[in-house]
Amino acid sequence: MTPTSPASLHIVCPHCDAVNRLPPARLREQPTCGKCGKDLFTGAPVDLSSARFLKHIERTDIPVLVDFWAPWCGPCRTMMPFYAQAAQTLEPAFRVVKVNTEASQDIATRLAIRSIPTLALFQNGMEVARQPGAVDANTIVSWARSKAQRLA
């Protein structure tokens, strides 16, 4: 552990939404939730509703990458497999989630999501970057990594 790295990270469970404390060195050791016992990282985007969204972006200490999408959106459906592929590459350094803007219109309105698909990157509960439009997996990974700020 370097002098500037945190002693532990808070990671919200993608299954039960419990907040877990985890030493940074354990991120790559397939950690499990202390409450439900399931994997904290699944290598797939976590589908979040409005009720779960805020907890995940506010309580997770690693960057949270969000895909705002809708089922009727052709470009969104085209990008889905690329986003899933990017999740396999980005986890566990990132939490990768998706929000259906039709089912969670309040979040889309609150964040002024004007087009879909839109990628947004959150750190420490704050949006730090946004990218509209469908892109491939390599672009998603490169964009997320370039926009993520190092944990202080």
Please describe what this structure looks like.
- 29% of the residues lie in helices and 23% in strands.
- The chain has a domain at 42-147: Glutaredoxin (3-Layer(aba) Sandwich).
- The two termini are 12 Å apart.
- α2 packs across α4 (137-147).
- The longest helix is centred in the middle third of the chain and has 17 residues, at 74-90.
- It is built from four helices and seven strands.
- Strands 3-5-4-6-7 form a five-stranded mixed β-sheet, sandwiched between helices. The chain has a two-stranded antiparallel ribbon with strand order 1-2.
- The protein has helices at 50-59, 74-90, 105-110, 137-147; strands at 9-12, 19-22, 46-47, 64-69, 95-100, 118-123, 126-132.
- The model has no long low-confidence stretch (mean pLDDT 93).
- The protein is α/β, with parallel strands linked by helices and 152 residues long.
- The protein is globular, with a radius of gyration of 15 Å.
